[in-house]
Amino acid sequence: MRIPDAALDRVRTDGFAVIEGFLTDEEVALAQDGLFREFPRPDDYFADPAANAELVDTQFSGIRLPPYHSWDLNRLAFHPDLVDAAERFCGSTDLQLYKVELWPKYSGAVDYDQPLHRDYGNHSLVVPRADRRWPQLTTFLLLSDVTEADGPTRVVPRSVGDQEPLWPAKLPPGRLAEAELSVTGSAGTLLLYTTDVLHRGSAMVGDRRSRFMLLADYSVRGNPWMGMISWPRLANHPGWAPMMARAGVRERELFGFPPPGHVYWNRQTLRDVGLRYPEMDMSPYLAAARDEATGDGDAGAGAGAR
Ligand SMILES: O=C(O)CCC(=O)C(=O)O
After folding, report:
1. Alpha-carbon distance 238 to 54, whole Å?
2. How far is the CA of 116 from the centre of ligand 1 (A)?
3. Which residue among 32, 45, 232, 242 is least enclosed by CB atoms within 10 Å?
4. How many angstroms does the Cα of residue 22 sit away from the middle of ligand 1?
5. CATH classification (class only), 5-229
C-alpha cells in the first residue's frame, strides 16, 4: 500500500509511524513461505529447541543477511511502496538501501529485552542532525502477528524522548518506561522510524512465542558517514546473482549497481557483467551505452574496447 504523506509527517514529528496492512495478505503468505525456508516454523522449533540452538545463542544470533532463497522475501526490502516512501521521506531518488536483515525470535532460551536506544550508534559515524537534514529511514516489517506476548518493539515518541540528550545513544534500563508504546500488529504491518528515536526490543513473555521481522533501511547515497552493510562483500553468495538478475534496474541501483548511462559502462564492462550475471537482461545498459556512443560517449567504438 502507498504510504500516505501524513504518515511520513508523523515519522518526522513523532519519530515513528505504524502502517497496518502495508503488505497484502498474498504478499504476507508468499513472504512467510520464503521465511520458513530460512528458519524453522514455530511448531518445528519448539518440538526440538536444541536442534536450532544456534538461532538463540544470543538475541542477535538468528539474524540473517540477504540474499534469501525466496524472491518474494528478497523483494520486500525494495518493495516499490517502501522505496517510494523512502524517496519522499529522504527528499531524493538517489537512495541507498544500506541494511537488510531478517530476524527470527523464539521464546524460552534468550532474553530479548533491550534498554531504550537510538539506532544511529551503528548506522552512522556521527550523530543525526536535529534539523533532520541527511535523514535515514529505518523500518521493521512484521512477518508474523505480534501481540504483547511476542516481544513487541517499544517506541518513545519524540515529545518525550527528545528531552534526553542525543548521546549516549543508550539509556539506563527502565528509564522512560512509562512513555513506551508497543508496536503490535498483524503480519504485514510496517514500522517506520528514525535513527534518533528511542526504542527497544522487549522480552517475550509468553510460552512458545515467536516473532519474525524484515529490517530494511534507507538513506541518500553519497554520505559516507551513514550506512551499515557493504553489498559487494555478499556478492559471491550463490543467491546473489539470481537476485540481482531478477531485480529491475532501479532496484539494483539501490544496492549500488551503476545505472544505465553511467560512465562505468563500456564495451568491456557490458560484456563481462553480462558474463557474471548470465540471467540479467543487459539491454537497458546496452541501449543507454549505444545512445552515449552516438554522442561519442565512453561506450563508443574505441573507448574501453579490448
Ligand atoms: O527487536 C526489536 O523489536 C528491536 C530491536 C532493536 O531495536 C535493535 O536491536 O536495535
Report:
1. 22
2. 9
3. 232
4. 20
5. mainly beta
What residue's CA is closest to ligand 1, atom 9? 201
Q: Is the minimum distance from the CB of 199 to ligand 1 under 6 angstroms?
A: yes
Domains of the chain: which residue ranges?
5-229
Cis before 278? omega within 30 = no
In terms of residues, how long is the chain?
306
User: What Cα–Cα distance (Å) separates residue 286 from each residue in 233, 252, 264, 272?
Assistant: 26, 16, 12, 12
CB neighbour class for 186 (10 Å; exposed up to 12, middle 13-18, buried from 19): middle
| Centroid of chain to Cα 166 | 23
Kindly give the distance from the C-alpha atom of residue 178 to the centroid of ligand 1, in angstroms, as a whole number. Answer: 18
**Residue 107, CA distances (Å) to 59, 156, 188 in order:** 10, 24, 21
CA–CA distance, 195 with 217 (Å, rounded to integer): 10
Q: How far is the CA of 243 from the centre of ligand 1 (A)?
A: 27
Q: Are 289 and 264 in contact (CB under 8 A)?
A: no
Per-residue pLDDT tens for 219-277? 999 999 999 999 999 999 999 999 999 999 999 999 999 999 999 999 999 999 999 99
Measure Cα distances from 156 to 114, 141, 192, 226 in Å.
14, 18, 13, 23
Q: What is the mean pLDDT of residues 125-147?
A: 97
> CA–CA separation, 194 vs 188, rounded Å?
20
Identify whether 4 is preceded by a cis peptide bond (ω within 30 of 0).
no
Check pLDDT > 80 for residue 70: yes
What's the rounded Cα separation, in Å, for the pair 140 and 285?
A: 33
